[in-house]
Amino acid sequence: MGLYWEPCPGGARLLRLLGDTPCPAVPGTIEGLPVAELGPYCFADRPVRPGARRTGDDAHEITGNFVEEVILPDTVRVLDSAAFYNCRRLRRVTLGPGVEGFGSDLFTNCRQLQTFRLRAAADAPTGLKKLLGAVSADITVELDGAQLFYPEYSEFLAAWGFGYVAFWAMKWLIGSLVLGRNVLQEAADQIAYRVSDKIVWLQIDYKTVLQTNLGCFNFRTWQLLLLVLVAVCLLLAFFRRTVMRVRLLNTLPYMLVAATPFVWYKLTENHSCIHGFFTHRDLAVTIFATACILVDLSRKESTL
Asked: Binning pLDDT at 50, 70 and 90, where does residue 301 land?
């Protein structure tokens, strides 16, 4: 086995591992120095940074899709950014309890990653919480005498939603304190106005909203594109000898998606009428969902 490395605080930083196994075990020491860090892009299919020291005679780099499992020694304390970037066949990582530093994008595109193995008791202090924050898919954690399953990490979405609402609420609250007037009430009045069917100079209805948004399209162009799409689907169905029939259970989700812009226009008539010059772009969702329905209807019938 060979490797590229460089000195770092506390020992050595591993920059690249060389060998012929897809399941390497990282050595605990390099020339007498403990391996304290995995360097940036250590197992990624990227060039090694200039000036790195080399040890060993192997020439084959253990990187990218070649990597399936990695075993880290207890000496490792830091996993630098993108250490396993684009290791699409990586399934398992084994590490000790002392890892405390985690960079960003550690496991980006590691789509087959399933298991973390921690050489620690279930009640021992570890960096598990930070490690789990580096993945966004289902993951199994094996500990000494215990096995835990963590479902897909969706806390970021909830945190973003809370932060977005809190951001606006704080602006209104601070505005009320600074200006000495009820900005919160003004904001509530504006929200009610934007979802109403009234404009200061005009009484509007849902038909007007639809005309405003649909009128932003060049219908000659879109009609031609739609006809071409339908023709292609029909030809595909004919040559595959399929039977075109409405499969409601298959197309219903697409129909619901296709309807969402029209529901939004109804809920925000004022906003969608005044700002039709950009809210008409919501109809791209309808166009895409309709295309999905046509493709679904032209699929080859299963013989199973």
From this structure: low
